[in-house]
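Working notes for the structural subgroup meeting. M.R. asked for a predicted model of this chain before we commit to crystallization trials. I am recording the input and output together here so anyone reviewing the notebook later can reproduce the run.

Input as submitted:
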Amino acid sequence: MDRLYRTLGALAGLLALSACLVTPGRFESSLDIRADRSFSFAYKGEILASDMGKEALTGASSSSSGDDAPEGEAENSPTLMQIAVQEEDFSDAVDGAKGDDAQMQAIAAALSKEKGFRSARYMGKHKFEIDYAITGRLDHAFLFPFNIDAQIVLPFVAVEMRGDDRVRVKAPGFANGFDKSQGPAGMGGAGDEAAKALNGTFTLTTDAEIVSQNQEEGAETTPQGKRLVWTITPLTSDAPAATLRVKN
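Returned structure, recorded in token form:
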């Protein structure tokens, strides 16, 4: 058990992300998808972290208990984080670190080392300044942001393969239609603050066929192909979405 404490202590800053719901603030984001399935994505701007509390950290609720688990699952279901939080000493350490700027600085430092993050700075008051860019090929789904230790993922942008030749793009994080205050696992009352902070643009460019999209002004023709630009404000209720036809 002492070894477990030492390991978790070293990772405490990064794992603190598991207790946060992250939402966009001021930002500019772009996604370019070519008909040959190559893509590039960028996000530059603010990410806001809202404390979700220990229940969200463990994936538990106040009304559930191990007695309700199906037979044979009780011993195998707890995650490493759940086991650790059940230990009083570590639980106190996590609770004490939630508002600690030093822990947030450690998270920013950890993110800066991950692929795609050109910079990640903690600005205070649970606000991060992010510069992220990545390129790749769409032979699998793509989500941003994603942290494997998080119990809950609300992606800003999701790209999903549909059948043999279609790509669906949706940006649920760039809209207030999803009630973040009433989300899964009791995300807490961060919804109003997150809604007021939402302010940015999301640009999709492509030389693939646009099968459908929900930008009411339609696509603009450019030398790089078609371009769709969504202006995101606190009043945005529909998540930007488009479906493209790419090469098989």
